[in-house]
Amino acid sequence: MAQGTLANVEDREITDTRVVNAPRELIWKVWTDVKVGGEWVHTMHGPDGRDYPNRIVYKELVEPERIVYEHISSPWHRTTVTFEDLGGKTKLTFQMLFETAEHKRKIVEEYKAVEGLSQTLGRLEDYLAKVS
Fold first, then answer.
1. Which domain, by its residues, includes 41?
2. Is 3 inside a domain boundary?
């Protein structure tokens, strides 16, 4: 982890949990084609017309239970995604952990990260409904 500690993470994290109507193995398959150390470089296009370059490095893959990656573009954060099997459905939990509460505040206020995560999970559910 970059600077910061794991103590008192509540003020530095964004978490969202959702139960998806698809088996864990399918979600893992559509989510991953990566390896530890692999990178994902992409540009997010904001509703304001701005482009936001992103670079992610995958740190841990525990098939089909957990993915951990670091967003090494500014602001740095580590995301842990867990996949819990619920017998034909899957409980997804996302935890984005920032170095400081100030970094979290900025990402929430300026970049609308909470809304963005919710939209991303909604798109994942829509996609899974088509392929399952």
1. 11-131
2. no
